[in-house]
User: What shape does this take?
Amino acid sequence: MLTGKQKRFLRAEANQMKPIFQVGKTGVNDNMINQIEEALEKRELIKVSILQNCLEDKRTVAEQLSNGAQAEVVQVIGNNIILYKESEENKHIQLP
Assistant: This one.
């Protein structure tokens, strides 16, 4: 579980990032979760965009993604979700 200070740090890190995944009207599927897991292993911190045609609530989508990829939801802001998972081989983010 992330502390408030760690979440603030990660939000600042993600501020300039562009979303690398988009969730559309089909919602979250296993293939998307696998790709997000791989991206989190490489980057540790990613941003996911929720398109306007997505039928599910953004908090539900964030929960599905974090549970599926065993990642932490740093923030849900607007139509973006910021996810963090500590990498096992590519550690480059030092949490405070």
In short: DSSP finds three helices and four strands in the chain. The helical segments are 4-14, 30-43, 58-69. Strands lie at 21-23, 45-50, 72-77, 80-84. Residues 15 and 87 are 20 Å apart (CA to CA).
